[in-house]
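We were asked to recover a plausible sequence for a given structure. The inputs and outputs are reproduced exactly as logged, with field labels preserved.

PROBLEM: sequence recovery
POSITIONS: 167
GIVEN STRUCTURE:
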């Protein structure tokens, strides 16, 4: 049997213990939620440098630099900026890039014919069709018409399926 003093002591001890445990839990929670500031520019510069060296190494080993082909249809202004930035990025890492800028009224079959030619061209390593496409062309059909091996964006259904391996 606990006397009155013993009971009070136990209650105080219990309260202290509880408060220590809660504080510890709080600390752990805080640790888990602590934010890490990522310096995006620094990370990007490191990736550019890594890729630049990889391309240099390929060339030093007697292989040609990779060749990226960008396909833009129509005159969406934002698309113009994105494509320009992608060409700049390619230049920065030393890869060759070519742009095919087709008019807004390009037919689906003309675009698919171009993609077929690029798919089988051994001098082309990567193909990127800038989206959005004009309304009369189904993007899904176009994305699935880029060879999965040359699909830079990973928009082909086969490559989207492969994303599950990353989870
Ligand atoms: N073939 C493709 N077409 C389109 C894509 C794409 O990935 N491949 N995405 C968009 C356009 N786009 C690139 O082409 C793009 C749009 C937005 C951003 C982005 O990161 N935006 C950030 C701001 C980034 C910054 O300030 O530097 C944001 O919105 O918070 C990247 C790429 C549709 N077409």
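RECOVERED SEQUENCE:
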């Amino acid at each position: 049997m606990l006397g009155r003093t013993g009971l009070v002591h136990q209650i105080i001890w219990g309260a202290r213990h509880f408060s220590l445990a809660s504080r510890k839990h709080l600390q752990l929670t805080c640790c888990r939620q602590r934010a890490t500031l990522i310096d995006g520019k620094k990370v990007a510069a490191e990736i550019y440098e890594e890729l630049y060296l990889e391309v240099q190494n390929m060339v030093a080993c007697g292989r040609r630099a990779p060749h990226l082909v960008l396909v833009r249809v129509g005159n969406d202004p934002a698309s113009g900026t994105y494509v320009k930035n992608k060409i700049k990025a390619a230049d920065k890492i030393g890869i060759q890039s070519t742009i095919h800028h087709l008019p807004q009224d390009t037919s689906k079959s003309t675009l698919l014919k171009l993609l077929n030619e690029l798919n089988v061209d051994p001098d082309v390593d990567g193909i990127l069709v800038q989206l959005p496409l004009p309304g009369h062309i189904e993007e899904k059909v176009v994305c699935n018409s880029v060879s999965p091996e040359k699909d830079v964006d990973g928009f082909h259904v086969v490559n989207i399926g492969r994303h599950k391996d990353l989870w």
